[in-house]
């Protein structure tokens, strides 16, 4: 059934791996020992921590005008805590009462862990007014005593002591209240009033299954990725480095057979390593060497195990296919390693899907590979799998796995990837190198901008904006232009557009504001915005009483110019060769969105970014995008000062604005001047005679 | 030792490293970008989940609600996340509905316990739900808090009816006040995170340069070019060592800086609107020299250790797997210093790696006790010296230098010891 | 393994028609690495491609072995067109070059077994063939030692055995002697002659004049992607009136380059 060539490649891979003792040690044996060791160590640390908490004696002082009252309460606390009465005077249980003349000083110096101040109502009023204390006492305690616990929270003992004391004081209060009520003649004990019983209809096993189901896929995929990457990095990328790929490719085996054989090998190894690890943990759990913190008693029947295996099969295939593709795109072992890190992170994210509250397989998640099966597995473990949905999810992930496999096959047809010569750009420097480095620079820029925005704040919000938007976004392009010796007119697309384009801008920019609102509306279905965030969203600026012209300048003109220079100027210029027009538009749009750090602004800004990139690519010039951006932000600022918000209108407004934007783009298309040099103008590759390049 | 020569070699190493993509990524970009990126992902994720959770609405059925308590139903209906549904199915039907999700919680009103029956209109409630469904869990949570509040109000009415004064009932308020300044809190947070992370990042940042300086050189066949130059071998080794240590230090410090700057973001959600107070000043100025010294010491040790392992590698892959065990070895002490309660005693100061981690923590928190501090410097100094001596001893062997030995450091040591023993015999 | 097409005596086992490969280079635009190459190689013949580094030898041979796809033109190996039936082409072909390395973790015996299977050699005859080659190349001693532990001379023998393990009618040697010492190179040349005597069609590229003189039945001089002349050594001598191949080569490369080819390249 399996072609002999596939079997031969599979056998070769497995044999090569098994003979590579060091790799086997590192990727199989070491984790088998290390993971339990880490678990044991952290268990041990936790236990010691808990032990320390148990035996810890907090040093406490009592003070304040009503300290006699507090002492009465505290004695109760000491008794409940100690478990037994008596003991040395002033010391019992976990609190030791100390006398202190200056408790605040002692607390600061660390001679006390905490102290309790008791105030009569009048004394509290006076004290809190004098100290301008920010502590607020709820209204229902008007005219009641106030007990203030003072702690120094950067010391562990002080923090936990404070919490313990507080919860005990609240407990005491509860029982005092109960006894007041009973004394006043309440016929029943207060806890008997409207008593609530809870009944969980799910069995313990199902509950455990649900808990396991939340993390099982994450753990499995993580293990498979770690195990599989050991083979994957070595297979295609490593073969290019060792030169065996050419040997293999000149054999009669087809690309498809080679890829299948390798894929099966990665799958087998990934699965084997994951199983070994799970068995390993199982044994440790069974022997009681590791004590799981929150009960772990899932029994998995053989039938369920088989079901899980079947469900996980496309996931294994997908994991292996992604790893193989990554390897196919790397020129050497080292490069493959470099790519693996982001791949590992990216693949793990969808496995977190079962953690989303209320997620069910009968929703959009069914079309997200990996995420869908993660949810399906959780359902399966709970015993509530919806089989048709599970089948669809299975198919989706399987299809995506097949797609990745086909991509790997195609990568073996890519001549540049096979012959794998590094580019001359590295030592030529200048514009050619810029194309290779532009993304790396933008990643660094993103981090710097993030840290800058978070930390640099001027008294005047206007200066902050001017620096963070104006200066930073202006400096960055200038640095890049200088560093890579770029021609500014080319790099920033400083060209005159066709006059007809302005008509499109005039239509599109105002409509775009409402279209963006529409996008926000639509996105709310996918990324729900927490209400708390919505309320204080973007309100600060408009409340500062800044003159209108300054507002327009700060919010519209400055960012319009600088952000366009950075994104539609440099970024488009740098990436233009790497993508086709559509992919380029989307990529620049998304990167633009990511720079507007807030998750909820990303879809909207990315939408704007996509439109502006399209405008730039079609007009061949940066200027229409700048004008569009300025008008867009200007309208939003103007609406902001009047308290109007886009996106609140529904129905026809939404559709209409979208259509108008489309019309505007059509107009610009009509008068287009294409941006020069977009896309790969043909297959790249190099003929090599002993590593030299073809002559000119 | 020729300082000028070492300087030239060192500059050469650093320059080529800065042009190597994987080194730039792992030693500079990751330390710099990691915190902003991780924090961003974490907060976006949290608010995403929060948004999802807020959107959950639940279906709840009330069974046999006493007429006297209809206000309870009204208050439940006011909660937009609870939908009251008509329900008249049997017990089994209800259970099935709870399991398959047609219903999220069933609230049955029952007669009160016999000893609580003397209060007019008193009742008992049973909430049935399914622990394995988010909606059901949410419904239960919303219902219990509503019922708790209902009972509080009821109790309050009873109290008023019996003539117990509001003040007497309130009894006393308990408030908690923290005398630590925001700066101290920031340092505390930094102090709990930094030791662990610094260990890891210094090791990560030195990892690729260490392979590059040895196995990479062999792979590119530049090793012999270098050795056949006029430079003395000791100088070559020193320059390489300093280069690896530099990258470890720079990576560690970049990471620390990025963390200190990004901390603002960690605290914002904890401190609410006061977060602006946290901007800047997270690291005490006087601690910075100590932090730099600690990080450098760590890097010097890690660099020597990694070189000792990677010197045996003939290619990148081998180098990587040879260093990996050492890399994981660094993780283990890191696990033990995560607890903020480990005190900086002289005993701790004698454990390499752990001592630097604790030293860093103390430096960030404000003050380093003298004796353990000095002991740390001494212990680490000795470790660094031993590691350097090991590297030099290994590099003196020509087989190793030319990459002609099989196996790594450990098998080399074993061989040498066995040979030594047989010769002694 | 032979298709009916091969019975046609006019169709040699390897022949090309205007085979062309154009690379796109970011900085220089189009580069014609191979330009309208017509060559052929008959049964029992060694055809030598002679050219300087970067002349297009490797690119031509890589197209024949289907690693690279021709931009234009066609090429047949045993009647199979390289673009239409790449797998059939490779089944009939053994490719050897300095860049076709061996898997380090497996032994020579396993290597041969693996490539025999991958190349679709009849299953029941694999073992016999492997043993035969091990004897023929005298690699018995180290047949079960991992390749990574072998010396370069041993590796070379295994590599050649690997090339012929599936007994292909066509063999391509791309600068095979480039990294070999004198004795190994002589041995290799002897073996290639033996293969010719067995009736294989052999393509052979080199930049070493003496090697081409010694070994090749016919020689094609390739320069800047274009074939400038083909023929037996005698024919080339007659055409130019020069005796030594080195002189002949220099004459063609510097003086005799056809105008067209030069123009094509300047455009790139």
Question: What is the structure about, briefly put?
Answer:
The complex is a heterotrimer of chains A (696), B (425) and C (268). Chain A is mainly α and 696 residues long.
Question: What are the defining features of this structure?
Answer:
heterotrimer, A: 696 residues, mainly alpha, five-stranded mixed sheet, 67% helix, disordered C terminus, B: 425 residues, alpha/beta
Give, in spatial order, the strands making up the sheet with the most strands of chain A.
2-3-1-4-5
Class derived from helix and strand content of chain C: alpha/beta
The general outline of chain A is: globular
Which shape of chain C, going by the Cα principal axes? globular
- Runs of chain C in which pLDDT lies below 50 for 5 or more consecutive residues are 1-7, 259-268
Number of helices of chain C: 10
What assembly state would you assign to the polypeptide chains in this entry? heterotrimer
Largest sheet of chain A: 5 strands, mixed
Write the H/E string of chain C, N to C.
Answer: EEEEHEEHEHHHEHEHEEHHH
Instruction: Indicate the radius of gyration of chain C in whole angstroms.
Output: 19 Å
Strand content of chain C: 15-25%
Poorly predicted spans of chain A: 80-93, 422-428, 682-696
User: Termini separation of chain A (Å)?
Assistant: 50 Å
Greatest interface and its residue counts?
A-B, 106 and 110 residues
**Arithmetic mean of pLDDT of chain A:** 81
Content of β-strand of chain A:
under 5%
Pairing-aware structural class of the strands and helices of chain A? mainly alpha
């Amino acid at each position: 059934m399996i072609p002999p060539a596939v079997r031969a490649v599979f056998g070769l891979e497995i044999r090569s791996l098994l003979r590579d003792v060091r790799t086997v040690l590192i990727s199989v044996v070491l984790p088998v020992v290390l993971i339990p060791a880490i678990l044991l160590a952290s268990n041990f640390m936790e236990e010691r921590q808990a032990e320390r908490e148990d035996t810890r004696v907090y040093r406490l002082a009592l003070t304040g005008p009503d300290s006699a009252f507090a002492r009465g309460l505290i004695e109760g606390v000491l008794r409940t805590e100690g478990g037994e009465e008596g003991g040395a005077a002033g010391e019992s249980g976990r609190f030791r009462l100390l006398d202190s003349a200056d408790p605040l000083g002692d607390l600061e110096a660390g001679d006390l862990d905490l102290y309790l101040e008791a105030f009569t109502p009048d004394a509290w009023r006076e004290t809190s007014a004098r100290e301008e204390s920010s502590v607020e006492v709820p209204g229902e305690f008007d005219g009641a005593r106030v007990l203030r616990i003072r702690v120094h929270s950067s010391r562990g003992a002080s923090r936990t002591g404070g919490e313990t004391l507080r919860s005990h004081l609240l407990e005491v209060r509860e029982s005092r209240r109960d006894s007041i009520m009973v004394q006043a003649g309440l016929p029943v004990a207060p806890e008997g009033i409207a008593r609530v019983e809870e009944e969980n209809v799910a069995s313990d096993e199902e509950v455990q299954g649900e808990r396991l189901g939340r993390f099982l896929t994450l753990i499995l995929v993580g293990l498979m990725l770690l195990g599989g990457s050991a083979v994957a990095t070595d297979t295609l990328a490593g073969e290019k480095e060792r030169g065996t790929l050419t040997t293999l490719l000149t054999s009669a085996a087809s690309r498809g057979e080679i890829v299948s054989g390798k894929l099966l090998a990665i799958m087998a190894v990934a699965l084997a390593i994951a199983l070994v690890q799970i068995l390993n943990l199982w044994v440790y759990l069974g022997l009681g060497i590791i004590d799981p913190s929150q009960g772990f008693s899932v029994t998995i029947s053989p039938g369920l195990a088989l079901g899980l295996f079947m469900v996980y099969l496309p996931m294994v295939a997908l994991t292996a296919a992604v790893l193989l593709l990554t390897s196919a795109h790397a020129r050497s072992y080292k490069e493959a390693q470099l790519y693996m890190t982001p791949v590992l992170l990216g693949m793990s994210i969808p496995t977190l899907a079962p953690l989303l509250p209320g997620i069910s397989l009968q929703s959009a998640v069914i079309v997200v590979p990996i995420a869908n099966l993660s949810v399906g597995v959780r359902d399966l473990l709970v015993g509530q799998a919806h089989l048709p949905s599970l089948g669809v999810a299975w198919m989706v992930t399987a299809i995506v796995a097949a797609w990745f496999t086909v991509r790997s096959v195609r990568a073996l047809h890519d001549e540049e990837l096979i012959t794998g010569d590094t580019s001359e750009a590295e030592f030529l420097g200048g514009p050619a190198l810029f194309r290779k480095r532009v993304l790396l620079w933008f990643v660094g820029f993103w981090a710097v901008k993030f840290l800058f925005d978070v930390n640099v704040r001027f008294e005047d919000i206007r200066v902050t904006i001017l620096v963070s938007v104006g200066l930073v976004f202006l400096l960055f392009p200038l640095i890049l232009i200088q560093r890579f010796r770029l021609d500014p007119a080319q790099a920033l697309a400083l060209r005159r557009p066709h006059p007809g384009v302005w008509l499109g801008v005039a239509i599109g920019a105002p409509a775009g504001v409402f279209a963006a609102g529409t996008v926000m509306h639509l996105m709310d279905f996918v990324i729900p915005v927490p209400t708390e965030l919505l309320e204080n969203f973007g309100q600060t600026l408009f409340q500062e009483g800044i003159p209108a012209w300054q507002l327009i300048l700060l919010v519209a003109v400055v960012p319009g110019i600088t952000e366009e220079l950075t994104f539609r100027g440099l970024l488009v210029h740098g990436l233009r060769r790497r993508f086709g027009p559509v992919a380029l538009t989307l990529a620049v749009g998304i990167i633009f969105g990511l720079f507007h750090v807030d998750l909820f602004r990303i879809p909207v800004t990315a939408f704007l970014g996509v439109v502006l990139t399209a405008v730039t690519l079609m007009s061949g010039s940066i200027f229409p995008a700048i004008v569009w951006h300025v008008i867009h932000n200007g309208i939003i600022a103007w609406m902001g000062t009047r308290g109007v918000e886009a996106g609140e209108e529904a129905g026809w407004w939404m559709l209409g604005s979208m259509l108008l934007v489309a019309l505007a783009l059509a107009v610009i298309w009509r008068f287009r001047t294409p941006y020069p040099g977009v896309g790969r103008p043909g297959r790249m590759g190099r003929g090599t005679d002993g590593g030299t390049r073809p002559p000119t | 030792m020729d300082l000028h020569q070492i300087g030239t070699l060192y500059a050469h190493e650093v320059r080529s490293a800065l042009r190597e993509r994987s080194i730039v990524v792992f030693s500079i970009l990751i330390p710099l970008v990691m915190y902003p990126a991780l924090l961003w992902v974490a907060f976006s994720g949290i608010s995403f989940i929060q948004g999802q959770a807020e959107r959950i609405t639940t279906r709840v059925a009330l069974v046999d609600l006493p007429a006297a308590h209809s206000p309870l139903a009204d208050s439940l209906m006011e909660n937009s996340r609870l939908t009251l549904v008509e329900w008249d199915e049997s017990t089994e039907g209800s259970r099935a509905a709870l399991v398959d999700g047609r219903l999220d919680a069933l609230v049955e009103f029952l007669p009160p316990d016999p000893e609580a029956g003397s209060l007019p209109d008193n009742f008992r409630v049973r909430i049935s739900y399914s622990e394995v469904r988010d909606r059901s869990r949410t419904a239960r949570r919303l219902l219990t808090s509503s019922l708790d509040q209902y009972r509080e109000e009821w109790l309050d009415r009873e109290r008023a009816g019996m003539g117990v004064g509001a003040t007497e009932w309130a009894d006393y308020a308990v408030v908690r006040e923290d005398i630590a300044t925001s700066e101290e809190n920031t340092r505390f947070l930094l102090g709990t995170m930094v030791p662990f992370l610094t260990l890891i990042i210094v090791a990560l940042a030195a990892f690729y340069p260490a392979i590059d300086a040895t196995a990479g050189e062999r792979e590119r066949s530049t090793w012999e070019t270098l050795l056949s130059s006029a430079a003395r071998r000791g100088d070559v080794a020193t320059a390489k060592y300093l280069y690896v240590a530099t990258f470890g230090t720079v990576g560690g410090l970049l990471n620390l800086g990025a963390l200190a700057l990004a901390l603002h973001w960690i605290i914002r959600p904890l401190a609410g609107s006061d977060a602006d107070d946290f901007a800047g000043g997270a690291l005490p100025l006087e601690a910075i020299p100590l932090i730099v010294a600690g990080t450098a010491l760590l890097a010097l040790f890690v660099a020597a250790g990694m070189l000792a392992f990677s010197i045996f590698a003939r290619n990148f892959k081998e180098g990587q797997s040879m260093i990996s065990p050492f890399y994981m070895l660094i993780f283990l002490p890191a696990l033990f210093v995560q607890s903020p309660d480990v005190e900086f005693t002289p005993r701790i100061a004698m454990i390499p790696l752990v001592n630097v981690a604790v030293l860093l923590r103390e430096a960030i928190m404000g003050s380093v006790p003298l004796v353990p501090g000095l002991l740390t410097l001494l212990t680490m100094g000795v470790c660094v010296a031993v590691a350097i001596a090991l590297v030099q001893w290994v590099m003196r062997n020509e087989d190793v230098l030319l990459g002609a030995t099989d196996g790594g450091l450990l098998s080399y040591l074993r061989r040498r010891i066995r040979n030594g023993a047989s010769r002694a015999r | 393994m032979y298709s009916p097409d091969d019975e046609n005596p006019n169709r040699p086992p390897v022949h090309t028609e205007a085979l062309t490969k154009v690379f796109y280079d970011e900085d220089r635009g189009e580069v014609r690495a191979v330009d309208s190459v017509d060559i052929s190689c008959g049964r029992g013949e060694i055809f030598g491609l002679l050219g300087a580094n970067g002349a297009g030898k490797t690119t031509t041979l890589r197209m024949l072995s289907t690693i690279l796809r021709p931009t234009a033109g066609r090429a047949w190996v045993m009647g199979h067109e390289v673009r239409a039936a790449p797998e059939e082409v490779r089944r009939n072909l053994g490719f050897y070059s300095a860049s076709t390395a061996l898997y380090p973790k497996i032994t020579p015996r396993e290597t041969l077994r693996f490539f025999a299977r991958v190349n679709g050699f009849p299953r029941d005859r694999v073992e016999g063939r492997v043993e035969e080659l091990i004897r023929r190349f005298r690699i018995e001693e180290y047949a079960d030692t991992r390749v990574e532990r072998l010396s370069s001379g041993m590796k070379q023998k295994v590599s050649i055995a690997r090339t012929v393990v599936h007994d292909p009618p066509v063999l391509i040697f791309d600068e095979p002697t480039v990294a070999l010492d004198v004795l190994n190179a002589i041995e290799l040349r002897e073996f290639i002659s033996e293969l010719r005597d067995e009736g294989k069609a052999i393509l052979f590229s080199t930049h070493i004049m003496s090697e081409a003189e010694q070994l090749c039945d016919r020689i094609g001089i390739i320069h800047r992607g274009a074939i400038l002349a083909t023929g037996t050594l005698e024919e080339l001598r007659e055409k130019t009136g020069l005796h030594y191949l080195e002189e002949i080569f220099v004459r063609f490369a510097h003086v005799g380059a056809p105008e067209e080819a030069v123009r094509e390249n300047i455009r790139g």
